[in-house]
Each structure stands twice: as C-alpha cells, then as structure tokens.
Amino acid sequence: MFELVKAGGWLMLPIIACSVVAMAIIIERLWTLRSKRVVPGNLVAHVWQMHRKGLLNKKRITSIRNGSPLGRILSAGLVNRHHSREIMKESIEDTGRQVVSELERFLNTLGTIASITPLLGLLGTVIGMIKVFSAITTAGVGNPTVLAGGISEALITTAAGLSVAIPSLMFHRYFGGRVQRLVVKMEEESLKMVEVMQGEREQESL
Question: How far apart are CA 126 and CA 152, in angstroms?
Fold first, then answer.
C-alpha cells in the first residue's frame, strides 16, 4: 500500500485526506440519521396522553426537546400550545428549519469531496503524463523504465481519486434522500400534534 501511495506522488496525500474525511462523515451520518433516533415512534401519541392528563410541565417539555430532533420540533409547539394554531405552526416551522439544517450537516462537505477527488486524480494524470513526455524528450522511447514512473503516477492517482469519489457521491445522494424522507415524516407528525391539540383532529387518529 505504501508503495502505491509513493508511486502516486504527492497528490495522493490530499486524496487520502479526502477519503478519511469522507469515511468519518459517512459513519457519523449513518449513526445520526437513524429513523428511530430522528423520528421516535408514538412520540406524538405520548405527548397527547401527557397533555390530556395535564402532565405537560416545563420539565417534561425539556425532556421531549432533548430526546430527538422530532421532539425538539414538537416542543417548540408545546411551549405555545395555549396560543392559536398559527402561532404553534410558526414556532414549529422556525425550529424545523434549524433541525433540517442540522440533519444536512456535513453533506455539503461530502458532496465537495465527491466533486474534487476525481479532479485531483485528473491533475495527477496530467502531471504524470507531463513527466512521461519530459522523459521521452530527454531519453527517448527506448528505455521503458524511464517512462514507468510517470505512467504509474498517472494511473494510480486517477484510480485513487475515483475510488474516493464514487462512494462519496453514492452516500451523498443517499443521505440527501434520507433527510428528505425524515423531514416529510416530521412535518406530518408535527401537523398531527397541532391539529389534535387545536381540536381539528380526533384523538383516535393517533
């Protein structure tokens, strides 16, 4: 492995750095964007039961807020539950935008890595081919050993760049789709809570 890195030249260093960052982001997002963590099941029903029994005090609302991203959104509405439906929805939407921003954290970085690593590989290819033509100019084409260094550098950096870019792009698209699905689910759950507490939906629908 070290020999491949060495043969690829100095451009292998930023490509390797990008691969380490991409791997860290992928692992962190896989853990953070779990459905059960973001949108716990039956949370709205649990909130409604506490509301109906008069148990929704400041301490319990804080516990709901700290429990999950959905809980953070719902708690924004619960704080304003004695106000109108419009006030509840506005507070939920304001908090929701912040939560969505946190769910999308690091995705731009992952997309950037997916974009720049092939370019780094291409740059390595260009540098390697320049070395090849320089060697041809100096020593001619009769000695393959002279040409091998430039050719190997060109091929290795290209392969390394693509090896990082392809999975990075795949996971970037995957996480983007997952965030969208979670956002839709959180919107549905939040609207359900608002309608129930404002008397526009029956309890049994939970």
Answer: 12
